[in-house]
Design a protein that fits this description.
Blueprint (H helix, E strand, L loop, with lengths): L1 E5 L3 E2 L1 H12 L5 E5 L5 E2 L1 H17 L3 E4 L3 H9 L15
Parallel strand pairs: 1-3, 2-4, 3-5
Helix pairs in contact: 1-2
């Protein structure tokens, strides 16, 4: 079973704790994170997403990003990570 989580348009300080809770609620399952709405990615949510990628890899589960917006991809890279780390399925939109 694959769960899908739609990421908010603004992933800032206020979004970090709800994002963490939403992701952890589906731990142990394959997860697709829809990044199509993301317009702003802050440092704390960036860290939450990096931790999720690492946790899912350690758990042997699939965590993939789908429909990643250009803004999300650009800010992900600006924060020092590679877009290839996202395991993006499909094209960046």
């Amino acid at each position: 079973m694959t769960s899908e989580i739609s990421l908010s348009s603004v992933l800032d300080l206020r979004a970090a704790m709800p994002l963490k809770a939403e992701i952890l609620a589906v731990r142990g399952q394959a997860v697709m994170l829809d990044g199509s709405a993301v317009q702003r990615l802050g440092g704390l949510c960036f860290q939450v997403l990096l931790a999720a990628i690492r946790t899912w890899r350690e758990d042997g589960q699939s965590l993939t990003f789908v429909n990643v917006s250009e803004a999300f991809a650009a800010q992900w890279s600006a924060l020092g990570a590679s877009v290839s780390d996202l395991g993006v399925q499909g094209e960046i939109v």
